[in-house]
Amino acid sequence: MDTIQKTKDELEGQPPIPLRVGEVHEDTTYDAVFGEMNEQGPNYRNVGFLGTVALMMKTQVGLGVLSIPAAFDTLGLIPGALCLCAAAIITTWSDYMIGVFKLAHRTVYGIDDAGGLMFGVIGRYVLGIAFCLYWIFVAGSGMLGISIGLNAVSTHGACTAVFLAIACIIGFIFGSIQTLGRLAWLAWVGVVCIVTSILIMTISVGVQDRPASAPQDGVWVSDFKLIGNPSFTEAISAVSALVFAYAGTPGFFSIVSEMRDPRYYTRALVICQASITALYIAIGCVVYYYCGSYVASPALGSAGATMKKVSYGVALPGLMVTTTLFVHLPGKYIFVRALQGSRHLTENTIIHWVTWLGCTLGVAVIAYIIASAIPVFDNLISLIGALLGTLLSFQPMGCMWLYDNWTKGKAAKSKKWMFGVGWNVFVVLIGTFLMISGTYGSIVTIIESYNGATGASAWSCADNSNSA
Questions:
Q1: Which of 253, 271, 304, 317 has the most beta carbons within 10 angstroms of its beta carbon?
Q2: Where are the domains of the chain?
């Protein structure tokens, strides 16, 4: 253990020449995070450029995009689009800082490592626990999305609790694939399916006379609003949902750590963020323009019963990949932390497999319980985005820039440095505000949903696609 730690300490601070971070000796590779890797064990450094793009896009494009039109309905078209662009700018900066920080600190694997460097033991544990909870909650929302899709396609062919159990099993089986490199092709499948289903739904609401839930008699004109008039609770919950659409940020630590060549990280990031932002704006504006206040959440149910089946049928593989990836990420994190410094991390031993499968199974089961206990899709999305999404996507990245640049820039105090300080302090402050206020708004909304006459109940067999 001391030898490994010494090697890690020696690697820390070296110039970032990351064609393959680590030293290669014949058939053995030493990585600053995973230790010695050889042909007898899994290759944790096997994600190529295209695979990186796919994983980034699948981490971002998933559940959050389905709640964007409903958020626009709350905020209004113009404020909604502006808030979406603001979230895109801030999270793109945060994503960029992950790559920069990783190359400057090679031993960093997860956001908890960054927290440990900046804030010591407390920072490591707080961010590590938040990371696990966040992805487990997101996996739960993925399972909820699968259950909605299965209900829609089958016309409620079974109890929703059964569909949630099926989603849990799918998440565990495919989430137990050992490396992100092997999951990259699934990520492409997921991205294509989700985007295709959304485009089908978008085209459908554009060509139809009116959305499915709108009054079917008389002349109908969309009641979309350019500027909404929400209460504070409604507004902040909607903003939290928009933040969640970009809150794949903490997963980028895992992705860059498994890249073959992390120098291509920024290039992949630009492609990912530019593509999904264009998609989000187009989907949000078009769907809300044609549906108005009758937009469904998730949005795939906005085009009528038949197109709802078609949209969810196409989206289901994508929702399954979403759940798979979100079970894998916290499972991998716990697994690496449990076995780091041991040969069992990179060798196919009994301890390796028991620990790995135990981690993914535990994550899947906890996510299933969460999905069953909070069965309202948009409420769950808002709560996750507010409580954990902002905490892991805003504040730490602002602090990462300050950690690396405060001391060396304070002496000269150039305009570029002062702008950087101001921007990153703003990122920390806005993230803290959104976390506190958004969590409050989401909790109030969930309580109102349970108390209302049509509120959803936990562990219910009822069809959860009726309002979707």
A1: 253
A2: 47-214+221-451
State how far the Cα of 325 lies from the Cα of 318, in Å rounded to an integer: 11
Contacts of 454 (CB under 8 A, 6+ apart): none
Q: Which of 330, 350, 446, 341 is nearest to 32 (CA)?
A: 341
pLDDT at 1: 38
Confidence of residue 12 (pLDDT cuts 50, 70, 90): very low
DSSP string computed for 269-313: HHHHHHHHHHHHHHHHHHHHHHHGGG--SSGGGTT-HHHHHHHHH
Strand partners, 29: 24, 37
- The per-residue pLDDT for 328 is 95
Please give the full DSSP string across 148-161, using - where no structure is assigned. Answer: HHHHHHHTS-S-HH
Residue recorded with tokens 């089946």: 309
Q: Specify whether the CB–CB gap between 279 and 294 falls below 8 A.
A: no
Nearby residues of 88 by Cβ (< 8 Å), 6 or more positions away: 246, 273, 277, 280
User: What tokens appear for 263 in the block?
Assistant: 């120098």
Number of neighbouring beta carbons within 10 Å of residue 419:
10
Closest CA to 16 of 272, 256, 346, 332: 256
Q: Please return the burial class of 342, using the count of CB atoms within 10 Å of its CB with bins 0-12, 13-18 and 19+.
A: middle
Is 123 within 8 Å of 440 (Cβ atoms)? no
Say how far apart CA 42 and CA 49 lie, in whole Å: 19
Q: How high is the pLDDT of residue 176?
A: 94
Residue 421 phi, psi (nearest 5): -65, -50
- Residue 260: is its pLDDT beyond 50? yes
Distance CA 66, CA 308 (A): 13
User: Rounded to two decimals, what is the model's pTM?
Assistant: 0.86
Tell me how far apart the alpha carbons of residues 298 and 99 are, in angstroms, rounded to a whole number: 32
- Residue 71 burial (10 A CB sphere; 0-12, 13-18, 19+): buried
- Sheet architecture: strand order including 23-25: 23-25, 28-31, 35-38
Least confident of 20-29, 58-67, 101-110, 328-337: 20-29
Distance between CA 414 and CA 420 in Å, rounded?
10
Do strands 28-31 and 23-25 pair parallel, antiparallel, or not at all (unpaired)?
antiparallel
Cβ-Cβ contacts under 8 Å for 430 (sequence gap 6 or more): 90, 394
Tokens linked to 116: 């440990």
Under CATH, to which class is 47-214+221-451 assigned?
mainly alpha
For CA atoms 416, 419, 424, 427, give the dihedral sign.
negative
Place of tokens 């304070």: 410
Compute, in degrees rounded to 10, the torsion defined by CA atoms 306, 308, 309, 313: 140
